[in-house]
Amino acid sequence: MTTKYPYLRQDFLASIVVFLVAVPLCVGVAVASGVPAELGLVTGIVGGLVTGFLPGSSLQVSGPAAGLTVLVFEAVSEFGVGTLGVIVLMAGLLQLAMGFLKIGRWFRAISVSVVEGMLCGIGLVIIAGQIYAAAGLKAPSTGIGKIAGLPGAFADALASSAALASLAIGAGTIAVIVLWKKLPKAVQSVPGALAAVVLATVASLAFGLPVATVTVEGLFGVIQVPGASAFGELATPAIWGTIIAFALIASAESLFSAAAVDRLHDGPRTEYNKEMVAQGVGNTVCGLLGALPMTAVIVRSSANVNAGAKTKASRVLHGAWLLLFAAALPSALALVPIPALAGILVHAGWKLIPFRQISTLWRSHRGEALILVVTAVSIVAVNMFEGVLIGLALSVVKTAWEASHLKTEVVDKGAGPIQVHLSGNATFLRLPKILDSLEALPQDRPVELDLSGLHHLDHACRTALENWSERHSAVGTEPVRVTAA
């Protein structure tokens, strides 16, 4: 047994840790997404038992992610829970296609600033939205509305004893998670989020606090295979934007998570296209079950590595434990206070905001820092998909601008021809600057234009330089002498 499965003990113990980390997160993400709590567990089970078996990244763990909470909530609000399965199914099929077409590795080319900005924007929206949930209040539908409405929400909470009790549970949950890391290592073997939920549940029961708890429908009661009416929604053009957003953002989050997990261990490296296929299979199955979309989740993945996992057996076993829990102890969920889950997600949202990266980028690459901030603000102000597109567009413009770096040097010795040296990349983006420099030269002096230092001269620039040379030579001076690029 030990020869065939040399790491069974390590993987078994790691699977228990990952299971304990996953339970509160699966439930919390589902509740925050506006769907039954059990659907989060279904996605976690599929992430373990289906995606966990497949090749790609051996140690990262998949399940419902806080990073998709905002997008899922928007989709459920617009199209309904019944259509969620179709959206996830089609997103999974799109991921499969990208994996088979070997597009997975290209996700590594996405600007890190855009990804960090996406996570920052998501984190801000999650924090703002879950503060309302922690107070037992209804959150506004837009990101800007959530943030702008916070002062009024706090004022309303202060006037209600029930809201204050609910906020106390949420704040206490966050405090336990933060302080848990300062306790002895032996105590930390129990994940902080799980300990916080258990303590919050005990406190609400012991003191009879008037806080909302999770609604339980039973594992098989929430699974809805998409029907004909749900598939009929595919005729709506708007749904395809959501499907593409699900596929691209879930894929990006999974593959960036894989890169991060690879830095945590010395085992086999991630095969990105195979991981894309694995995520596609998982989301296809989740879609058929009407569950939440899945991504690889860095919190569970790092817990898996830190707990000593050696093979994919740990993540498969964690899926089995989730299935046993969902089948045998669903009633335990009914005791969990919703503000405790909100506290977990507020903490998760806070960790998505890259404070250190923003300060580092501002010191060394201010353009990248600006892209990060604009992406985050766009996600809060508009929505996640369009916010990411704005960030990508800014990144492309910045790259194009930097790629067209050009140096213009004018040498005038007072007598003889004026020498103009161009070096770098002469593209249409720099054409106004080039022409301003050339047209400022004296009309009655000969000019030598040296283009030998150019790495690239595009058609627009070449044509403009030829036209300027003809104009300058037409006023009676010597023809412009050009040294070709």
TrEMBL record:
> Could you list the residue ranges that cross the membrane?
12-32, 79-101, 113-137, 157-180, 192-212, 238-261, 281-299, 319-348, 369-394
Q: Which residues form the SLC26A/SulP transporter domain?
A: 8-375
Short name of any one Pfam family annotated for the protein? Sulfate_transp
Report how it sits in the membrane.
Multi-pass membrane protein
**Chief place where the protein resides:** membrane
Cellular compartment(s): Membrane
Give UniProt keywords alphabetically: Membrane, Transmembrane, Transmembrane helix
What is the protein name given in its UniProt record? SulP family inorganic anion transporter
